[in-house]
Design goal:
Blueprint: H1 2-7, H2 9-30, H3 48-57, E1 58-59, E2 62-63, H4 65-69, H5 72-83, H6 91-113, H7 122-127, H8 130-133, E3 137-139, E4 142-144, H9 146-154, H10 186-198, E5 205-207, E6 212-215, H11 218-221, H12 223-226, H13 233-238, H14 243-252, E7 257-260
Parallel strand pairs: 6-7
Antiparallel strand pairs: 1-2, 3-4, 5-6
Length: 269
């Protein structure tokens, strides 16, 4: 019966047509419709102008503020930040945005006061950081101070490496990186900054023969940030030291005497 059925051309055509239709339905079902697909993520913020400025005017962490003041690209970048809505960003894009904003608006504050010797004047010492409490920053219609950005926005994101990236305009700060921070390379950039910062002997020194180290005041001011997951700040620091030095630090951690280097607030010019 089956052989006779397929010998008839009209029956053979019906079967082929049915198979083609069924295959088409299955293929179509395998492809999600546009309505079912997740919406596209909002475009990130373009930090190209900031990279151009930093690459041109930052060398070994020293900033040529006088030159930046006359470069229209910097004011254009500030305008980009002011018009941005960081609430549309997530993850590394959001963190990179706020690190760049902190560093850029610190530069802007210097330019507004330039020439100056330091952002930390006598009044700032008395009030606990007057400069850093000034709400001169406007982003997406909201006012911020540098302290707001650091303590209320960036630090709650939970990555202690931000302290290698935020530059408050002082010589004892980590060196300003000659490029903007970007989501795709943010982790690598912060790790590089950590290794560079820890290698600077004016900020961090290690004398294992005397069981003494002198490290940046940053590790004192923000010690709770570095004590994550049950680790000490010394364990955190060890990850950014050369292997031999890291081994000695961990081996001596229980008996080592920790001091803090004097913080130089002179402008990182």
């Amino acid at each position: 019966m089956q052989i006779h059925f397929f010998r008839r051309p009209e029956n053979f055509k019906r079967v082929i047509t049915a198979l083609l239709v069924a295959g088409s339905i299955a293929f179509t079902a395998a492809i999600p419709s546009r309505a079912a697909m997740p919406p596209a993520r909002p475009n990130g913020i373009d930090h190209t102008l900031f990279t151009q400025v930093l690459a041109a005017y930052v060398k070994d962490g020293a900033v040529d503020y006088k030159a930046i003041k006359t470069d229209p690209r910097f004011s254009q970048y500030i305008a980009v930040l002011q018009k941005s809505n960081p609430e549309t960003l997530t993850g590394e894009e959001k963190l990179a945005f706020w690190i760049n904003a902190y560093n850029a608006f610190t530069i802007q504050y210097v330019l507004d006061k330039y020439p100056i010797k330091s952002l930390m004047n006598k009044l700032s010492y008395v009030t606990g950081g007057g400069t850093f409490k000034t709400k001169f920053i406007e982003i997406n219609g909201r006012k911020y101070s540098l302290n707001d950005i650091e303590n209320n926005v960036i630090r709650p994101m939970g990555d202690p490496r931000i302290h290698f990236a935020l530059v408050c305009g002082a010589k004892s700060c980590p060196p300003l990186r000659p490029e903007a921070y970007l989501a795709g390379s943010l982790s690598e950039q912060m790790d590089e900054q950590g290794r560079l910062f820890m290698s600077q002997s004016d900020k961090n020194r290690f004398d294992f023969e005397k069981n003494e180290i002198a490290i940046s005041k940053i590790f004192d001011w923000f010690k709770d940030d570095f004590r994550k997951n049950g680790k000490s700040e010394l364990e955190f620091i060890s990850a950014y030291l050369p292997t031999e030095q890291a081994q000695k630090l961990l081996a001596h951690a229980a008996i080592i005497k920790v001091k803090y280097t004097e913080y130089n607030w002179d402008l990182n010019e």
